[in-house]
Amino acid sequence: MLWVDKYRPRTLDKMFVHEEIAQNLKKLVAEQDCPHLLFYGPPGAGKKTLIMALLREMFGPAAEKVKLEQKTWKIDAGTRTIELELAMLASTHHVELNPSDAGFQDRYIVQEIIKEMAKNRPIDSKGKKGFKVLVLNEVDKLSKEAQHSLRRTMEKYSASCRLVLCCNSSSRVTEAVRSRCLNVRLNAPTVEQIIEVLELIGKKESLQLPPGFAARIAAQSNRSMRRAILSFETCRVQQYPFTVNQAVPAMDWEQYVSEIASDIMKEQSPKRLFQVRGKVYELLANCIPPEVILKKLLLELLKKLDSELKHEICHWAAYYEHRMRLGQKSIFHIEAFVAKFMSIYKAFLIETFG
Amino acid sequence: MGKRKAVIVLSSSEDDEVRDRSAGGHQRPSKSRSNPLSTSRKRIGKRSKETSCVGSVSRPSPKLEAAKFATLSEDFSDCLEDLHLARGNQYWKELWIDKYKPSSVAQLAVHKKKVEEIKCWLEDRLTKSKGRSGNVLLLTGHAGIGKSATVRAIASQLGAQLCEWTTPTPTLWQEHVHISNLGLRYVSKLDEFESFVEKVGKYSLLFPNNFGLSKVPIIILIDDLPGTNGRAAFVKLKKCLMTLAHSSQLPTIISITEFSEIDLGKGSTSRYEELISILERAGAQKVAFNPLTVSSIKKVLSNICQEEKCDVTLELIDQIAKTCGGDIRNAVASFQYCCVRPDDFLLSASSTQMTTNTRLDFTKSRSSLLTGQNGHEPLSFFLVGRDETLTLFHALGKFLHNKREIPNALDLDLGSESLVLCKKFVRKPLKMDVPERVLSQAYGQARPVVDFLHENVLDFVSDGAINDAWMVSSYLSDADCLLALSLHIIFPSLTDMHESKSISQLVAASVAVRGVLFGNVQPMSSRWHTIRSPKLWQIEHLAHQHKNELMGAKCDTYGIGVSMSEIVTEYLPSVKWISSGITDGLGDGKYEHYPIRVNSSSEHGFVVYDSKESMSNEESDDDEIEDW
Amino acid sequence: MAPLIPSSQPWVEKYRPKQVKDVAHQDEVVRVLTNTLETANCPHMLFYGPPGTGKTTTALAIAHQLFGPELYKSRVLELNASDDRGINVVRTKIKDFAAVAVGSGSRQGGYPCPPYKIIILDEADSMTEDAQNALRRTMETYSKVTRFFFICNYISRIIEPLASRCAKFRFKPLSAEVMSSRILHICNEEGLNLDQEALSTLSSISEGDLCRAITYLQSSARLYGSSISSKELISVSGVIPQNAVEALFVACKTGDFDFANKEVNNVIAEGYPISQMLSGLFEVIISSDDLSDVQKARICKRLGREADKVSTL
Description:
The complex is a heterotrimer of chains A (about 350), B (about 625) and C (about 325). By secondary structure, chain A is α/β, with parallel strands linked by helices. Chain A has three domains: about 5-185, 3-Layer(aba) Sandwich (Rossmann fold); about 190-240; about 250-355, Zinc Finger, Delta Prime, domain 3 (Up-down Bundle), CATH 1.20.272.10. Chain A contains 14 helices and seven strands. In chain A, α7 crosses α8 (about 215-220), α8 crosses α9 (about 225-240) and α12 (about 290-305) runs antiparallel to α13 (about 305-325). The mean pLDDT of chain A is about 85. By secondary structure, chain C is of the alpha/beta class. Chain C has three domains: about 10-170, Rossmann fold (3-Layer(aba) Sandwich), CATH 3.40.50.300; about 175-235, Helicase, Ruva Protein, domain 3; about 240-310, no CATH class. In chain C, the strands form two sheets. In chain C, strands 2-3-4-1-5 form a five-stranded parallel β-sheet. A two-stranded parallel sheet of chain C has the order 6-7. In chain C, about 35% of the residues are buried. The interface between A and B is large, with 67 and 72 residues.
């Protein structure tokens, strides 16, 4: 078991960060007045952890008895029937799923699942907790139509189920959905909090942490708790006892991107552009999301760049990132960005060095 | 009938006849009259002079009606005859295609290099002692570009006897029934071919007995491979060809007509590719014929023109040569057809020329060609001309090579007067048709075209010109966005959807093509390039596979809440580290591991796509591409 | 829902005025409509104006006052944006509803009960143009027996043929005082404790949208109990605290890329919604003193473009 899972807080009381929010949630549950919830925040902020703890708070340990179901949905969409297969994690009280996995048919999934959940809701002997919780991950990746139908079903079945939505960016969730939920923003843990957690884990694992080591991991983690713990464990595997100036290994794809970046800095020609394309292809074939590639590439390039060029490059990165979302094939846009960078950088080199 | 009556009334004198004829010539664009009819008019005119009373009678008596009917029926038979008549009462004894078949090497319109190549090969095989392998020559190319003619001409020059296999005429069903009633077994064409191949293997043994001392060298020409239906038959054919290639003692020439993908669907092209590759592997030498150039076709046509003494303008010849798409047989045939009424055709040809030039919307062009038959347009010249299809790769080659006219001082002056452009936006005129038209001729679908351009365009951008590379890729990115847009628009009705979908795809293709043409300011000097099939397709395929694998594993190990990108970017790399246990030193060792895994899998991809890749090879010999 | 969690009826519904005359701050509209109610003769109507100014409330109140609770169900069709309102719905659902004839206009139980039906189309500006066009025909065909109430934020998104058939009513944004009084009323009813600062914060974050203000109030009451501070209101509303916006603005003004970059990373890590951040920046820039108008215009142009990008996703 990975440390990330091993040391995940299980209850609202044990939350390392966001204690205040946890307490408020607890109050909500205690009052049995739980609206639909929308959690948003950057990756690694603890949304997932919080939701799990919340479910436990609501339903007790039964919420943790989950089983994985690969369920096929038959959906009658007007003229034809669509079959969709989607994995879902279900306990007697809640269902968790990732509707955006269904791709462009996501809207059918949302409607259908909520309908079905409303149909067979558990009836307690005391008539208590007669509702189910549906946890939907990555709602920001849902299509507009899906969000729209989400809103409709939310109203229709609000008596029988509660929705817990989870996403990175609430800007991409329509106002209509947002306004029907209690919005909970989870900020990324601060560096100090991360250090604290790392030291705690170190203590529990009875490891000797050299001074400043946890701080270094935390600094590289980009304020993501998950990332920090993962790299901490990696360091542990890599070398123990820790040395004072032990390098924190970057993720392999990140190293690959930084290699691409230095390729780009070395030579600016169509031929090199072609080589870069090949390398980006490799990343894409490994399912690294294109926007992540572009972002990382930008960061690596910015590191090596003169500050006067930085904002122009940033502008173009944003431009092509937007294009990428509009378009179909990400490579076209990544490549256009690289070409633009090369073009700008070459002009700059010629201007400064002749 | 009514129309005919009117004609009779009008044409009561010789003069009228002339007037009518010329009027007919001009009217025809607006009315759709077929050819025989117009000639019949002339006939009627003549006849009406003989029986001059007809025209003036307004209410014809029954007797006259009968007489008229007689004349009409005579007219009809005349018309029929007319079809076989050339102008000036000269009978066409044979088709010009046969009449002007090239009899000597000098008359061939085929590129000299190719002719020389074949000649050398034949000479080589005929003079040298027998018993060596590789006695098979493979000729490929589109229909009507002179493959067989070349062989025949060379054979006659070398004084060799040509022994031809042509596919026997197909057995009709009645015939088949008849034969089987007689107790004969039906022999399929393929079987016949098989036995022929067997015979060829033995032929050299028989040959000295037959001809004794005469020693006439023999060349076997297989002009037409029997059609195959179904996998089994095809395998059989392949086997036949293999044995042929291995066993043949005599120089054997196999000519295979290349058909474009659209004619027969994908299956048959791949078979065609397969046949070629089999033969090549069996040691056959391949000579690929390219479509004939416009100028050489023009030369042939004007030769015929002189021989036949037809007064056709150069313009017409030019037209025919351009529209035939490098198919000389077609060119000659349509030329002969045109000579029936050269003036009509010139007219219609020039008018269609006009319309096609102004026509940008290239999907419409096909439908308007069809409507030209019965609509307002005259008998379209394009119906006579070969349907101009280029292969997709030809079109791509054109775009990528980006050939432009050498600027002419005079032209530049003119240009600056009409439209003032910033200097950096000025490009020399293109050495090709309107790109959209080229694309339509290639039946290019937007998405594959864009993908192909993306894959290959960087090869054609010259080394230092990174700015050009950016411009090109930026336009391609535009095109991609447009394509994506065409998927996402929601349309109120189905017909609207098809229309706007196709329009936005057309626009996307146009943006991509023109972007490539415009952005590549300093194209690489022309040299031989292979056009690769987009690697992107493999990558997408791989990524998809990979994703599915991960999806399967994801739920088991990480639970549902973890998003795909988190797994790939954070969990997987760490897990890889952690599970591999204690390692030596820093991360370098494992880091190496990463790209290699990708490579091996992508190599796997290559094997799958290999056949496709060979298909996409395209020769772009300079002189041949630019002319037509 | 009611048996499970009785307290969670949305306050927006709970405190929605039931009578036209109770609608806050829209005096002209109320005056005209009261007349209408007395004669029980109303034209097609189009209510437009910013969100949360009482449009829906008014429409519902009219319907209720005309038909009373008994007939309401059979005489009034409510369709809001969450219902599927493609062209097909217009063709079938609305038509079906409109086509069924109604009884004569006799008064029942003290309500006027005029002999027509009412179709309320909430958020009509989100209807497609085709659907609106289809509606136009339906309106003409059934004008004797139906009245349409259109409710929208932007009148420009209603096609002209539809708009011209309706009596238009513009709803003004609510003033701070009106809002405060309503909020205080609710606070009294629900037993909430709201200090002056929290009150002004509430009216500023809800931007004149009473509906939103009430939602915020209810959310924070759920989370934080009966005494609510302005900070809690801000955290519930998802509005970005002013100092975060200011910090980014200051960072941008330095012209130092790295500094700004750091600040941006911070914003991302805090998880502030980008669209809100942009509108926050917009406010700051507009009210900033040390920027020239040309500068402001340029910056706003850029901001607009980026906001567009965010919203297209």
